[in-house]
Amino acid sequence: MTTMTRAQWADVRRILSAYVRRGDPAIAARDVLLACPDVAIAQAAIGEARERSRSATTRAALGRLSRLMRAHAAGCERIARMLRAEVDHDRPLPSVDEGIAFCRKLFDWSVRQNPESSVALCSLGSPRLLARVTHEIVAAFAQWGVLGRDRDTLEIGCGIGRMQVALSGRVRSAHGIDLSAGMVRAARKRCAHLGNVHIQTTSGRDLARYADRSLDLVYAVDSFPYLVQSGMALVETHLREAARVLRPGGDLVILNFSYRSDAAKDRRIVRALAKRHGFAVVRCGDKPFAHWDGEAFHLRKAARPLND
Ligand SMILES: C[S@@+](CC[C@H](N)C(=O)[O-])C[C@H]1O[C@@H](n2cnc3c(N)ncnc32)[C@H](O)[C@@H]1O
Predict the structure, then answer these.
(1) Model confidence over 197-209: pLDDT tens digits?
(2) How many independent structural domains does the chain possess?
(3) Which tens digit of pLDDT belongs to each residue from 109-151?
(4) Domain assignment present for 308
(5) Counting atoms of ligand 1 from 1, which one is nearest the CA of 180?
(6) 117: which residues sit within 8 A by CB, 6+ positions away?
(7) Residue 123: phi, psi to the nearest 5?
(8) Residues with Cβ within 6 A of ligand 1?
(9) Which of 74, 113, 211, 226 is buried most deeply by CB count within 10 Å?
(10) In this structure, are 71 and 15 located in the same domain?
């Protein structure tokens, strides 16, 4: 492989073998583009890996991946351009102020590039692929018993409002907050026809606009990694705030706590946070989805406060 660095080729090979073992091609396409944000070079590497393989199963899997990327060529090109622009990075930010400014700029810019890619790169920019993941999350929520027509819900970092659209018919109210004005505009447009959906701009620092014990479910899909990037003080505040706004017995679900690829460390931190803020840990960092590799943390507030 002459057009890919040695390190990139090693990464791509690792991604492809993980995908062949048990993977979803959309996740593999995202990871390959993250490792090598040039679609032609990435496709050539997949082709080369396919030619080199003696296993029919591997060749078939790599063929599926190539075809998916070709079928979403424009979306893959856009994602590669977004990655090359380097507006996003995963370096820790020096202060909460800088973290919030970084996220606002990043997501205002991302949603202008493409709504679906701005919230999930593994959508490859496709509404259909994004809906597949969204439905999987909603099915998991239903199975975990956190939905209901008598439940008031809030998403921290609601992005384009895909979760509110999907949950609107299954809950009493579906609130969403986001610090990006561009995301809030996109979410309001998407949810305009839904009377029980409420989208608000937030400072990104707390849940101040929500009253004590006013919600049954607080959740975050892929927004906690940005809180973590802004510093643990912001994470701590959000756990304290979630404990305040949830009714007794209410649920806090965090899908992806960080992007640092250290699952054991994330599990340790979430358990400690849960203990400090009066939550029981129901699930801690498993990967329950087929079409998305998000890690799930489900915490439950005590049914009756300890001092009652
Ligand atoms: C990757 S997107 C995911 C959006 C949405 N949860 C989804 O999955 O479709 C992360 C979102 O979190 C928002 N966000 C980041 N930090 C935030 C904070 N401190 N408070 C509220 N929203 C935040 C971003 O603006 C962005 O819309």
Answers:
(1) 999 999 999 999 9
(2) 2
(3) 999 999 999 999 999 999 999 999 999 999 999 999 999 999 9
(4) no
(5) 25
(6) 75, 78, 79, 82, 110, 123, 124, 125
(7) -75, -15
(8) 103, 107, 119, 156-159, 162, 177-180, 183, 202, 204, 221-223, 226-227
(9) 226
(10) yes
